[in-house]
Each structure stands twice: as structure tokens, then as C-alpha cells.
Amino acid sequence: xxxxxxxxxxxxxxxxxxDMSISLANAIRRSVLEIPIMAIDEVEIIKNxxxxxxxxxxxxxxxxxIKTGIVKETKFKLKEIGPRTVYSxxxxxxxxxxxxxxxxxxxxxxxxxxxxxxxxxxxxEHIKYSPGLVYYKHNLDSEILDFVxxxxxxxxxxxxEEFKDKSLSEEQxxxxxKIKEVNELVFNIESWGQIEVxxxxxxxxDVLDKNLQEFNKTIK
Length: 220
Known about the structure:
Elements: E1 2-8, E2 13-18, H1 22-31, E3 37-48, H2 54-62, E4 73-81, E5 84-87, E6 102-106, E7 111-121, E8 132-138, H3 142-145, E9 149-150, E10 156-157, H4 170-178, E11 185-191, H5 197-218
Antiparallel strand pairs: 1-2, 2-11, 3-7, 4-7, 5-6, 8-11, 9-10
């Protein structure tokens, strides 16, 4: 069961309620890091008069989200003169992602010029290839989650003594004591902009399915 809770395409966020097990939810979350994503892998700095070292500038450029499609490799150029703030949107051609990230501030007559090579990679190799943030929690009020323990089967346990020194109302304490188990998770996904937020979930499932098929072949 999957029930949509919130979807904001402009912000690249989606959340839904599901009755999937924790083990499956965690497998999907981990599979996100195996989705092929485009990111800058090499930076050739031709000129850098800014206050940042070449290594720091290259690191910042390497973390720019790049729209990922069918192209496996591509090249970007950047040439700017101050005074101005240089953004990720100043790379040519356009990186495609909607986020406008500040890279560096150039003072009067300061100049930077570089060439950046991008390729497909996976988040298990480097986090710059991660398509976004994926997390989940039990479908309970946040203030209740702080005072209960939930095992992998959704069974809730608590220690009544813990409530004595906490700033919980009598109503909250009674609510906690009435809950025996929780069978739903709130699954959240936030995209960095390389691929659509809905694609992150579907592609992660494809990766998990492929890995399970490969595993099945090895044990036959």
C-alpha cells in the first residue's frame, strides 16, 4: 500500500505513507546510491585569481548537480571576471538542474577560467553521484517517537519510568500507552535536481530488482 502524503515537483520533494517493511524500505534507500548519476569528475583550472585555492574551487564545482539523461560524458566551461558572484548556472552549456548554487565571489578584476569534465557514476563510489536524500520514519507523531522503542516488526515498547522527568502532558503519556504497534512508514525523498524526484524511487526499485536477480543466479 502506498498513499501519497505530499508532492512538490518544483521543490523536488515527495512523501508517502506505506505499509512496506523496514527491511524493504532500507533496501530501497540503499539502492538509491546505485542509480547512475552525472557529476563533474575532473576539473582543469586554467586561471584562478580568486581567494580560493584551486583544490577548493574544484571541489565546489564537483558537487554541482547536473541534469542526468542518456549522455554518458559531457564537458562544461566557465570563464568569468569580477566583481561578481559566480553561480553554477554560469557553466556553459547549462547544467540543466534548477538549483542556482554560489561557487565563488570575485573581486574587481579577479578572473577564473576552467574546463570541467562530467561522467556517469554511482553514489557508492562518491556522494557527488547521489541523486538526493531518502529517509523514512514510523507513522507516529514526532513527540511520541522520542519516547518509545519500535522493533523491526512494528511492535512498540516503552519504560513508564522514563516519562516522570519528561515534559509530556498526561494526554501524551496516555496516548503512548494505548499504542501497541505501528504498521506504516512515512517515506520521504528529496531530489538534488539531477533526476525527477519520482524517478529516484522507481529507479531505486529497478536497481534492487536487478541486484536480487543477480544474487538469485549466484545461488542456483
